[in-house]
């Protein structure tokens, strides 16, 4: 030692530095895993698995004489749309939504307005008149008020299905 300076030992490769190689290799591994995680997040976003667009954003639920397009993934407090297309004949179409849906989602607008609306014990039922040739379409603007997994019952013209939506923060 010269004065207050400590001279590091000379390594076999000629460098005069003390490094913690094990720590550096662990750090590089963690860094590579983080980049892999970022890449997966970007891939999920491009596929639509983080809400609002993409090929996998909407799920299609088929009923006899109708199809419902519902977001597979929604974003907390972001507006989205549910579309029901009735292809079967009839002067009236009925839409039934379980009350679990209304615990987590806010309804902004229903287009067209239902002719009749009634509350059941575990559901909300709306009736729409149908004129002209099919298909007839109903659009509902929704906004999630909470995030997490949600499950509710959806019924179109008497047929019921269970629907799941993931709401991301």
Q: What would you note in describing this structure?
A:
The protein is an alpha+beta fold and 169 residues long. It is 20% helix and 44% strand. The protein has helices at residues 21-47, 99-104, and strands at 58-63, 66-71, 73-75, 80-86, 92-98, 105-111, 116-119, 123-129, 136-144, 148-156, 159-168. A hairpin with a 3-residue loop joins strand 7 (116-119) and strand 8.
What's the helix and strand layout?
Layout: H1 21-47, E1 58-63, E2 66-71, E3 73-75, E4 80-86, E5 92-98, H2 99-104, E6 105-111, E7 116-119, E8 123-129, E9 136-144, E10 148-156, E11 159-168
Parallel strand pairs: 3-11
Antiparallel strand pairs: 1-2, 2-4, 4-9, 5-8, 5-10, 6-9, 7-8, 10-11
End-to-end distance, in Å? 58 Å
Under CATH at level 1, the class of the domain at 58-168 stands as Mainly Beta
Return the average pLDDT rounded to an integer: 88
Strand content: 35-45%
The percentage helix is 10-25%
What is the CATH topology classification name of the domain at 58-168?
Immunoglobulin-like
Helix count from the secondary structure assignment = 2
From the 3D coordinates, which CATH architecture of the domain at 58-168 would you assign? Sandwich
Q: What pattern of helices and strands is seen along the backbone?
A: HEEEEEHEEEEEE
Strand order of the largest sheet: 3-11-10-5-8-7
